[in-house]
Amino acid sequence: MTQGFTLFETAVGTCGVVWGEAGLLGVHLPPIGPSDPRAKLARRFPEAVEAAPPPTVQAAIAGIQALLRGERLDLMEIELDTQGVAPFNLRVYEIARAIPPGKTRTYGEIAREIGDVSVSRAVGQALGANPWPIVVPCHRVLAAGGGKGGFSAPGGTDTKMRMLEIEGALAPETLPLFGGL
Q: What is the predicted pLDDT for the residue at 150?
């Protein structure tokens, strides 16, 4: 077996991971509404077969579950299979991955760290293509002035705000806005 996948429960719903020999190939966040996560993973990773995860993937799952329960983990120990990912995207993911739980940055700040503030939109596009949400915490990247920005995972910016709330990254005065999530 070259690629495997498994589904697992978290505090926010059923997530999935896909792995290969070099690490995680993808992370799937819980669907919104009636949806079959297995079918979604099969479309994204047609070669992956459902299997028991090896120990390194079991550890990644445990870390994701803990983070989504509110534990402050950075998940930096999780190996990612980055084959085929554009170098610019890899740089964006490296910077995003260094954002600690409970903290946020903006697209512009990441662009500035790359060395060119004019690539802010490209930073957003790279994060929109992030195959490893949560592990590469694209939810911690906001628009200028604290705006939500986008979020391509199921549930869109509502999911993004819920994840930031779990991590304690939202200002206390904003929490009632998201109490129904």
A: 60
